């Protein structure tokens, strides 16, 4: 899962003090609705569309905001907590109360949703498991970042900023090494949370004044040129491996003491020519007059030719293990239903559901005499026709009949949802199958069959690791049931 001691989101945000995971109203200026991948989809597949989650979704994802799920916390008067968690599609996520944006780019740690439930204001973001640039530069344990990787990080930040600018987000507040995160492949991503003004007292910089753009000190406003200045400070971090004041670095540059500026931990393993280019670019970014600083396009154009190891994976250059993608071995013995789901034997699943009939529905419905109306009889007749069609493998008819039963809504049946889920799988409709299996779980939260059917649907959607996790949960529930 990656190291959890670092945070995707370390800054302080405004929030209501009575709720530790809550924030001010969503900033609508940051919700662009853009789905542009900006030169490539997010690593590991497309990022989910920006959407709304209920508070119960997020409570379930984080085990009711358990302290065990906290990734980081910051702030004093109004503590700001970041949690990791699993959504219903089993993705690991990080969530934080803050403004919201809908940008999509492979160089950004993308936001995937929000929650606006009562007084709660929460954001849901992709979880970046491999720490921050600050951790790898300043607090490394095994190895420092090699030179080629530092150049990759610099270009990635520039590309992210240029993309944001083209989408109308020209301001990025408090750009620093803590805003740069590394994903499961070790690729650098820029946090989206710097795209909005987000501190209680209106300040946009949390860093020492020595690192703050001079124009911000004069008028308290962030401009696009201020972002370039902050980018220059990150270049200094990458060059020196330390967080040194820009004024001190500029004095060294003017005195042509470039080698003294370079990180000694690199042990001279860098190109002097490339370092000279980066030092020159940092010097331009840190100019006192905003108009004398380069634009984002020049940053990208200057850094692109310096990429000398495009085919070497980032995780190799960072010296971190590749995230394991193989499905985990089940921790519990599998029942015949579990084994059928594991090997995706839909015929065997069908036979088991036919044999089980409605045995597990007992207790899910308690109907009064008055509810046995003609409508009820019609509804049960629809279910009966669905059962005949299901038994005879007429799955499309079964879907129609079971849908008539479900749509009336007087009676709920987890078995009907499980059966319709299998019908959807056999009709090559895995999304609908997953929805039905999840509905079965809602009706009967501890029913192993509901989890098994989710596992089968997730496998059909090629979410193998998630399917294996769900299969293991189902087997665990079945084991508990047998012990009882």
| Fourth-tier CATH superfamily name of the largest domain | Transferase(Phosphotransferase) domain 1
| E-strand count | 9
The main sheet orders its strands as 1-6-7-4-3-2
- What is the name of the CATH class of the largest domain? Mainly Alpha
- The N- and C-terminal alpha carbons lie at a distance of 33 Å
Strand portion: 5-15%
Q: Quick one: biggest sheet?
A: 6 strands, mixed
How many H/I helical runs? 18
CATH fold assignment of the largest domain: Transferase(Phosphotransferase), domain 1
Which bin fits the share of residues in helices? Answer: 40-55%
Approximate shape: elongated
Question: Rounded to an integer, what's the Rg over CA atoms?
Answer: 27 Å
| Class based on secondary structure composition and strand pairing | alpha+beta
List the quaternary state of the chains. Answer: single chain
List the secondary-structure elements in sequence, H or E: EHEEEEEEHHEEHHHHHHHHHHHHHHH
Low-pLDDT ranges: 1-45, 75-79, 96-100, 198-202, 366-371
Describe it.
It is built from 18 helices and nine strands. With 484 residues, it is of the alpha+beta class. The protein folds into three domains: 51-125, 2-Layer Sandwich (Phosphorylase Kinase, domain 1); 131-318, Transferase(Phosphotransferase) domain 1 (Transferase(Phosphotransferase), domain 1), CATH 1.10.510.10; 336-359 and 372-483, Tetratricopeptide repeat domain (Serine Threonine Protein Phosphatase 5, Tetratricopeptide repeat), CATH 1.25.40. The strands form two sheets. Strands 1-6-7-4-3-2 form a six-stranded mixed sheet, covered by helices on one side. Strands 5-9-8 form a three-stranded mixed sheet, with helices on one face. Mean pLDDT is 78; it is low at 1-45, 75-79, 96-100, 198-202 and 366-371.
């Amino acid at each position: 899962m990656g190291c959890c001691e670092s945070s995707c989101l370390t800054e302080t945000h405004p929030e209501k003090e009575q709720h530790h995971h809550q924030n001010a109203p969503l900033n609508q200026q940051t919700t662009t609705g853009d789905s542009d991948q900006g030169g490539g989809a997010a690593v590991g597949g497309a990022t989910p569309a920006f959407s709304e989650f209920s508070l119960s979704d997020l409570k379930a994802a984080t085990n009711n905001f358990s302290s065990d799920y906290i990734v980081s916390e910051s702030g004093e008067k109004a503590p700001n907590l970041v949690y990791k968690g699993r959504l219903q599609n089993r993705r690991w996520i990080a969530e934080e109360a803050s403004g919201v944006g809908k940008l999509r780019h492979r160089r950004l740690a993308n936001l995937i949703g929000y929650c606006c439930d009562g007084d709660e204001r929460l954001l849901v973001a992709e979880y970046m498991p491999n720490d921050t640039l600050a951790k790898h530069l300043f607090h490394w344990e095994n190895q420092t970042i090699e030179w080629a990787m530092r150049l990759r990080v610099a270009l990635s930040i520039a590309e992210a900023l240029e993309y944001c600018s083209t989408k109308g987000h020209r301001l990025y507040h408090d750009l620093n090494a803590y805003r740069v995160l590394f994903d499961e492949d070790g690729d650098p991503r820029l946090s989206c949370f710097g795209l909005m003004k987000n501190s209680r007292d209106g300040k946009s910089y949390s860093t020492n004044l020595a690192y703050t753009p001079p124009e911000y000190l004069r008028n308290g406003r962030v401009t696009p040129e201020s972002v370039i200045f902050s980018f220059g400070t990150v270049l200094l971090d990458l060059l020196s491996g330390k967080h040194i004041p820009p004024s001190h670095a500029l004095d060294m540059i003017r005195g042509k003491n470039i080698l003294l500026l370079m990180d000694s931990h690199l042990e001279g393993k860098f190109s002097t020519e490339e370092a000279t280019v980066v030092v020159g670019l940092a010097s331009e970014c840190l100019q006192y007059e905003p108009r004398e600083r380069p634009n984002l396009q020049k940053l990208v154009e200057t850094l692109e030719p310096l990429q000398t190891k495009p085919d070497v994976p980032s995780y190799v250059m960072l010296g971190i293990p590749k995230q394991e993608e193989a499905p985990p071995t089940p921790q519990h013995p599998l029942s015949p239903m579990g084994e059928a789901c594991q090997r995706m034997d839909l015929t065997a699943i069908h036979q088991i559901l036919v044999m089980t009939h409605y045995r597990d529905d007992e207790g899910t419905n308690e109907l009064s005499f008055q509810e046995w109306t003609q409508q009820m009889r019609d509804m049960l007749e629809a279910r009966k026709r669905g059962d005949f069609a299901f038994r005879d493998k007429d799955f499309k008819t079964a879907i129609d009949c079971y849908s008539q039963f479900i749509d009336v809504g007087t009676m709920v049946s987890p078995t009907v949802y499980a059966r319709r889920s299998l019908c959807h799988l056999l009709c090559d409709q895995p999304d609908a199958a997953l929805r039905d299996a999840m509905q079965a779980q809602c009706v009967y939260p501890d029913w192993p069959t509901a989890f098994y059917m989710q596992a089968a649907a997730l496998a059909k959607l090629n979410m193998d690791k998630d399917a294996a996790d769900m299969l293991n949960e189902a087997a665990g529930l079945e084991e508990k049931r047998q012990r009882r």
